[in-house]
Amino acid sequence: MFKRTKVTDGTATGQGPDAENWDGKEVGFRKKSKVPGVMITQYIEKLPEGKSHPDFTRKPIALTIQEGKFAFFKAIVTGDPKPTVVWSRNNGDVSDPARYQSKYDPNSNEHTFEMPHVKPDQADTYKCFAKNEYGQAMVTVVLNVIEVGFKMTKAPQQQAEVANCNFKKVLKRRSKVVPKAEEPEKKEGEIDPKFWELLMSADKKDYERICAEFGVTDFRWMLKKLNEMKREREEEQAEFVKNLSDLKPIHINADGTASFELEFDLLDPSSSIYLYKDGEMIPYTKELGDKMKHCLRKVGRKYIFSMRDLMPEDAGFYQLDVEDVNMFSTDFKMVDFLVKIQEVKAMEREDAVFECVISAPLSKLMWFGKNMPLEQGDKYDIEVSEDKLIHRLVVKDCMVVDKGIYAACAGIKSCNAWLVVEADKGAPKGKKTARKTTRAGGSGTDLQKVAQEQQQILDKEREERKEKIKAAREAAAEAAAAEEPEKTADSGAGKDKGAAVKVERIDKTSVAATTTVAGDSGSGHSAGKASGGAKQDGSHADAGGGHSAGKASGGARKDGSIADAGGGHSAGKASGGAKQDGSHADAGGGHSAGKASGGAKQDGSPADAGGGHSAGKASGGAKQDGSHADAGGGHSAGKASGGAKQDGSHADAGGGHSAGKASGGAKQDGSHADAGGGHSAGKASGGAKQDGSHADAGGGHSAGKASGGAKQDGSHADAGGGHSAGKASGGAKQDGSHADAGGGHSAGKASGGAKQDGSHADAGGGHSAEEASGGSRQDGSLADAGGGHSAGKASGGAKQDGSLADAGGHSAEEASGGARQDEPLADAGEPGITSGLSDIHAIRGQPAELTVKMNTDCDGAWFKDGEPLKSGGGISITKDANIHKLTIHSCRDTDSGLLRFVSGDLSTEGRITVGDVPEFDEDDLHKFSKPVIVRVGQNAAFKMPFQPQESLTVSWFKDGTELKDGGGVKIVREPNHSRLLLRDCLRSDSGEIKIQLKNPFGAVEATSQLIVLDRPGPPEGPVETVETTSSVIEIKWNPPKDDGGSAVTNYIIERQERGHSLWTKLGDVSAEKTSFRDRNVTHGKKYSYRIYAENPQGLSDSLETADSIMAGIMILSGPPGKPKVVSTSKTCINLTWTPPEDDKGVPIIGYQVEKRKKDTNQWLALNAINEPIEDVNYAVKDVTEGAEYEFRVSAINESGAGDASPPSAMACAKNPNMRPCFKDPEDFLVVRAGNSVRVKISYEAEPPPHITWLKDDEPIAPWINVINTEGMSQLVIPSSKRSDSAIYTIKAKNSVGEAFFDVEVRVTDEPKCPGPVELEQTVYGKVAVSWVPSPDQELDDRLYYVVSQHDSNTRMWKTVADRLFANTYTAHNILPGIEYHFRVYAKNDMGLSDPSQSPTWGANSNRVPISSNGVSSMEISFERPPSILVPLKVHTPPKGYQLYMTCAVRGCPTPNVSWYLNNTCINSDKNYYITNSCGVCSMYILRVRENDGGEYRVVAVNSLGKAECSTKLTVRD
After folding, report:
1. Each residue of 996-1029: pLDDT tens digit?
2. Between 593 and 345, the higher pLDDT residue
3. Residues in CB range of 1072: below 8 A, 6 or more apart
């Protein structure tokens, strides 16, 4: 369990100053410390001189530690007088000495606060107070304790005490992202909280990827909500941190760890930082190193979270919080390999390809080659497919050194494969082959198919998430709509949550009303077709309007009334039906692109039409009594027009909302029929009537045209505005009844059905690609059909009584009136406009021409902004048959306006706008036209000023290709200028730079040049040899293709002699000259040349000759004499030969020797031509023992190697037969007793001899070892004794002869001291010194004696006799009155013995000893327990080798030493030879075996104690 610090504002027990020493009431001045986080209070305003308030020079450091460990804080304080330091904690007491200890070290001036065996309840915020009489300093530090024995992911739990002494558990500190185990069941389509957390920490470029992953498609809603959440989060973060930046999502490093980074500054250094994985807190460490999986390091402002030993379960959602506020969130995903990389076998200089497919999109894999990370560069290409599922590594130009293991790593998943590179055997020797264009390798499977299948799986999961979200939203909308009470209103418009909803699609035009009773129709809500049912009593049969592309129409009734159709919720159409009693037939406004119109009534009551909420059209219906038929204003791009009345009263039309035009219809009494402004760019005009009343026309919703049809009785033939580019016209009727035409809306075809009584069968435009037709009725009432919705054609059906079957064309097709049985086609022979006006832009001062083309020759009039136009004043109006033209000779600003052409009831209009083409200032144009010259790697900048204009588009081009902002291109657009910046230019960036200014009146361009300077390309090859003689070589080349942007100034020529590695500069030539004569050549030698081109930017790459060029003609020497074999051995064959008889007049430099093994055909050169053998003899050492060879020799001169000599006789690489002989043996050896004896004798013999050793001419004992190797024999006595002293003889015998050699081995030891020494004076001045012989005298014939003398005058010992083999010595010059002392030593090859001391001779020799009055001198004891002076060392000998192991032991009395192997005593084991000489303990193993490995221990024991040391022996194979 991870125990976290609880930070509170209240003062608890132990917090703040102590009651006794710290009254807490002192008030002073706040001071700033140099150490961050230290609070200083100074009690007086001005400090006395030399005095100071307390301060911290080292403050305690926050600590996170495991439960049971030793925790401590250290602090160093300063101040004069010396401050008193007290420690406390926020939530507890620190007075328990068993848990808290305060210490002070006067040497280091450190105050330490220690907590041995720290417990979880000690996790808290601690305070350190330093106080003296002038002030107080305080610092806080946090202790976090990791509790053991519970889950590490368990959040800290703290208990708080309340007033009634009950305890309440504090809630777990949790992330806003709930753990999977506790995650509540999601509702269908609910968005995961991770989505918002990831977006708030992600870059904008990753928004689309995250939305696609979570199935979010409404970006506008997402961005709006994200901005709100970001503002709230930033306000929360500002309470704890500042300068939050550089958020780097989690990624996997090359060392196999994963990490993420961010930078921020903590406002309070004691603020706690928490880490979460999938909503659960995870522990981390700062100082425990590899003991914990997670680590959080701080480097400056940067916080780095890292995770080692990655496993699949480490994938998850990671968050970093400061206190309770999230700072960063990142998602760690694991991917797997669907197709792994396979082994690749490539030829040399061929490209090798490794490719794989992963299970999830990943922008980059980590590639390794031979345990080294690989990056994109000249050697390697790293490719990723567009879907980021297929990854490739291309090893370019493979060489033999590239072979090895290559690996691809995606997180903790990896795969590897071998690259095997085979040498090109067909390549010419010594030459580099050309690079191959082929590729080797690949997975052998259809990677694209595997990736597509995986992408389909991912897309399917993504679409499922989208569908769930969409379904959830629709369900929520339906539920909200169901809760609203149903309201009956005059408008049947589609509603959402009880209110009209805005939509963003274009509505259809309205359908005119009929004269029958209408049945209201509800708004359609689906993509199907909804029609109202028939009623016997004529009551209302509602029909739902199509919600999508469907259609809603009123159903048929037996009494003839019409079933009203509600406004389409989407692209459908809704129109109100007519009623016989004049009651209102309401039509709801189209909720989307639908259409709503008011129906007509017989009694004149108003037929209201709800305003179209979108692009639809709303028009008022006609009335018989002339009362007002109101039309709601179109809310979007639709058009609203007023209907006509018989009494001439006003039929108002709501104002159009856009650029369309609406005109009022004419009335019989001449009153105005107002028309709302058109909402779009379409045009609507009223049709002509015989009685002069206005034939209103709905405004065209798009670029289409809508006109009213003509009637014989003058009644209104309304035409709905065309919704698209199509044309809709009303048909003519004999009885003057209305022939309505609905706007065509789709590509389908809609026709009205026939009626038995000849009444009107209206046909709406086809709603889709299907056909929509009105139903027939028995009583002849109208069966309306919704307006066509696409580009299809809608025509009215035929009627028996000749009335027109209306057709609404809604799109790019034309809707025309249908034929009738009682008269010809409605539109045949009538005037019409075949080519109308359109909006144009005219250039100021230039002529402009507008043309209208009629289908017949008829007159017309021109109007500008409602005013008639006539020829004159710069305007010409002409007519040529059916073509009418208006010409403006020189356009001015006053010529801008709306032009209209009227011919009878027909009219067309278009707007003319006068303006200027953009222009550049001449000075700016001149400056811009100057080339911009930069060097490679530099930035190139272009700037072009211009006059600010509206609707101005600025574009930049390079060599005709438009440049876009991004990458190395930066385009800046300002109101009065534009700048282009090209970063890090390359030579290929040179070219034409063009800026284009474009507005509706035209475009203008300015051109400049970009010149990028670089060093030139290499001269063009190949290098041609113009002339070659014995003294001159002339070469020729071509200039480089690319001069680097500046002219080549000169060429530099270098030369290399064949066989040499050094290139020498010969000189340079001017750029005009592309040839060079080399006069410094030697006849017969070959040379290579390389040429560099130079310009002011530097040198080009070199052009090198393909082959060496020889000076003159090649003259080769004759063959030398046949080589002779001088001697042979198993490692060397010595040859000699004679120089060639004919050297052709060219001096011989040396020789080349070749060998050929017996039974082979290949000759192998023993030396290169450029390394000739200068002598006529050579020792061939590259031979195999026992193999037979023959040799030949070639003479080398300046032209090369000449003909080879005849081959030598076969020579075998073996030693010649020889009698054994010994090499520099030693004949005498002295060894200390107990040590091993090693006698090594080297010899030469062929064949190998038989070796025998003898001891004093007798066979050696079996325990004496003899080791024979090639050329050497060794006699080994493991532990010698004096009895081993003898003469040892080695005998070597083979088929040629035998040899003997004697070695004297003397085994001895340090001699024992001689016996007592006696002095006797024989004559005056002479003293005879005699002694008892040493016990070793009989055992050692090389023992002798040494006598030293000491007198009282000199007081120094000096040797007076040496190498005495007798037991007496006569001392001379013995003077009276002087004391003399003598010492006698025994000495042999091992050294001196201890001395034997003589009695005193001389003046005081008979002196009576003086008593010490009972006082005895102190006895000094030298006894001591054993100790190890030099311990054993670790040994790792090979198997079969010898081994010495030694150590040094001291102790008094002399300790007994025992050796142990794996706790088994080996002192008595004959395989180990153990000695102990003067405390140096040795063990010898003659030949190490496998079972000799283990732990060796030496134990030394005496009466005072024991000492031991140990080591390990490892036996290598």
Report:
1. 999 888 899 999 999 999 999 999 989 999 998 8
2. 345
3. none
Amino acid in the structure at residue 927: K
**Phi and psi angles of residue 272, each rounded to the nearest 5 degrees, phi first:** -85, 140
* 3-state SS class at 1428: strand
* Region of residue 807 (left: phi > 0; alpha: psi -120 to 50; beta: else): beta
Going by the DSSP 8-state scheme, the letter that residue 1133 receives in this structure is: E
- Lookup: tokens for 566: 């509600």
Rg (CA), the chain: 57
Q: Say which amino acid occupies 774.
A: G
10 Å Cβ neighbour count for 726?
30
Q: How far apart are CA 1474 and CA 1234, in angstroms?
A: 8
Closest CA to 619 of 570, 686, 667: 686
CB contact at 8 A, 1491 and 1498: no
Supply the pTM of this predicted model. Answer: 0.31
Instruction: With beta carbons less than 8 A apart as the criterion, state whether 150 and 48 touch.
Output: no
The continuous run of DSSP H or E covering 130 comes out as strand 124-132
The two tokens of residue 843 are 């250039």
- Which pair of tokens denotes residue 193? 């909280």
Helix (H, G, I), strand (E, B) or coil at 1194: strand
Q: What is the DSSP string of 942-979?
A: EEEE----TT-EEEEEETTEEP-SBTTEEEEE-SSEEE
Q: What are the pLDDT digits (tens) for 6-22?
A: 333 333 333 344 433 44
Contacts of 287 (CB under 8 A, 6+ apart): 64
Would you tell me how many other CB atoms lie within 10 Å of the CB of residue 597? 41
| Element (DSSP H or E) covering residue 1508 | strand 1505-1513
Please tell me the distance from the alpha carbon of residue 493 to that of residue 521, in angstroms, as a whole number.
Answer: 9
The single-letter DSSP state of residue 163 is T
CA atoms of 1252 and 1245, how far apart (whole Å): 15
In sign, the C-alpha dihedral spanning 429, 431, 436, 441 is: positive
Beta bridge partners of 31: 40
The answer, yes or no, to whether the previous bond of 1207 is cis (omega within 30 of 0) is no
Scan for tokens 């200039």, then name that residue: 1039
Main-chain phi, psi angles of 198, to 5 degrees = -65, -40
**In the structure encoding, which two tokens stand for residue 5, read together?**
């610090």
Q: Which string of DSSP letters, residue by residue, matches 347-416?
A: ETT-EEEEEEEESS--S--EEEETTEEE-SSSSEEEEE-TTS-EEEEEE-S--GGG-EEEEEEETTEEEE
Give Cα separations from 1129 to 29, 542, 1135, 1180 (angstroms): 100, 121, 12, 10
Cis amide leading into 269 (omega within 30): no
Q: What's the whole-number mean pLDDT along residues 92-117?
A: 91
**Strand 344-347 with 380-384, pairing:** unpaired
User: What is the tens place of the pLDDT at every residue in 541-577?
Assistant: 333 333 333 333 333 333 433 333 333 333 333 333 3
Identify the helix (H) or strand (E) that includes residue 924.
helix 922-929
**Bridge partners, residue 1238, by sequence:** 1276
- List the one residue out of 662, 835, 805 whose CA is nearest residue 737: 805
Q: How many CB atoms lie within 10 A of CB 1182?
A: 12
Residue 1353 near residue 1378 (C-beta atoms within 8 A): yes
Q: Can you state the angle between helices 219-237 and 207-214, rounded to 10 degrees?
A: 110
Beta strands in 1200-1356 (DSSP E): 1200-1204, 1211-1212, 1218-1223, 1228-1232, 1237-1246, 1250-1255, 1258-1259, 1265-1269, 1272-1277, 1286-1293, 1298-1308, 1317-1320, 1327-1331, 1344-1351
Judge contact between 538 and 516, C-beta under 8 A.
no
Cα separations in angstroms, 36 against 57, 58, 140 = 10, 10, 11
Listed in sequence order, the residues at least 6 apart from 1486 whose beta carbon sits closer than 8 Å to its beta carbon are 1265, 1276, 1278, 1442, 1473
Classify 427 as helix, strand or coil.
coil
User: DSSP letters along 8-70, please?
Assistant: -SS--TT-SS-TTT--S----EEEE-SSTT-EEEESSSSPPTT-EEEEEEE----EEEETTS-
Q: Half-sphere exposure of 707 toward its Cβ, with a 13 Å CA cutoff?
A: 27
Beta bridge partners of 1086: 1110
Which residues sit opposite 1507 in a β-bridge? 1500
